[in-house]
Amino acid sequence: MGCGENKGPKDLWYVGVILTIIGSIATNMGVNLQKFSFMREAKNRSATEKRSYVRQPLWVIGFLLVVGGSVLDFVALGFLPQSMATPVGGSTMVANVVFASLFLKEKFTRSDAIGTALVMTGIIIVAIFAEKESACYTVHELVALYRKPLFAVYAVVIGLSCISLYLLSKKMERVLKEKGKSSPEYKRFAKLHPVSYPALSGLFGAQSVLFAKSMAELVKTTFEGENQFVTFGAYAITLSMLSCVFLQIHWLAHGLQHFDAVFVVPVFQCFFISISILGGGIYFNEFAHMKPLALIMFSLGAIITISGVVKLAHREMNKLSPIRRMRAAASMLRFIHRCQKARKIKPRWSVVGEEAKFIDNGVPQMHTKKQTSPAENSSSPRSPRFGQRSKASVLPVGPTAMSVLTASAVVTPAPTPDDHRETCEEAESSTSTIGRGQKEDSSPATK
């Protein structure tokens, strides 16, 4: 990996490709573990008991995988130019489908397949026609590249984009918390909200690659015998790289907390790869030696990639299929029917003597049972025998209710359909009065 005239790393480009693929898979596995950690935290803990993501063990493991993948990507930059190394990282799109289905049980739809295929096609085209030459730089040369007018325009556009996406995400979080998804304020930017988090993460990730490539150049030059870490510029580049890596992970974590990984990761990869190629071309002047055909195909690849992102952006989060919606509706109807049926049942005893009838205020009141003729008695269906309990009774009678009964042998008739239509509130009143009677008299009830 020397910087001499004939010591370029072109003969070891395959090492950089392998390291980039392994790093991309590790990064994607870590991202899906972080999403799985958020899902398990939301399922097992209440809103007040939820831990921050830095206190969740699975999230920490995912974070370590993301960091490890980033380290491998950094090493790969020593073997590959930025415009070639970054698109190869698009192999994480394939791993994302596997890990999202394995850990998160997220369904990969036909629309997701089309969007992912478009993104992958665009990435491949960009990688084929991107500049593959890589030069070596000292710290003074790298600092001079930051002062170019074209890079200054690039930096202003990226800065304004980050500020706009940050303000949009915070506004949507506030509206979502105060007014909900159905509010007009949220619906106005509902399609941009899910894009804001991975877009921010991708923008910061692209800058981290730019600074990481600069760091790799400084390390290569240092290995050649010229120590580059003796000036403030080298440490400023290092600090900028670490800051961008942190912001990349932070906003990616926020995106995974709110939306599906099958959506967040492709959008992140699109911004990450596209802006990385653009930044590398502007900063390292990699577009200067591109032929017209290569420049046209490069632009075509970028357009195809953006089309894939638009396709993925129309994916609705956590939407039930029609069959699942029908099953949920049928279950709800069965539940409502059972509740209505249960409310029609009133606890009742048939007792001898005078009936103890409970009024609304829960105080037992005596009234004499009307004597009926044998003909009337014969017309009532299956009148219960002396001392028999009716079929509608579900609760025992308490000692207080028994104390108001007389010794006469009049039997309460069986409940009629009108009795079953009495309200639940009367049954609850009777139950509460009986319960108070049981507490007042501790002697067992006898019939």
Automatic annotation (TrEMBL):
Principal cellular location given in the protein's record: membrane
Pfam families found in the cross-reference section: Mg_trans_NIPA (PF05653)
Superkingdom field: Eukaryota
Any one GO molecular function term: magnesium ion transmembrane transporter activity
Residues covered by region (Disordered): 361-447
Ranges of biased composition (kind: Basic and acidic residues): 437-447
Cited InterPro entries: Mg_trans_NIPA (IPR008521)
Keyword Membrane: yes
Gene Ontology terms: cellular component: membrane
Keywords, ordered alphabetically: Membrane, Transmembrane, Transmembrane helix
Subcellular location(s) per record: Membrane
Composition bias type Polar residues, residue spans: 371-382
Membrane topology value: Multi-pass membrane protein
Regions crossing the membrane: 12-31, 58-79, 85-104, 113-130, 150-168, 189-212, 232-249, 261-284, 290-310
Name under which the protein is recorded: NIPA-like protein 3
Naturally occurring in which organism (per UniProt): Phytophthora boehmeriae
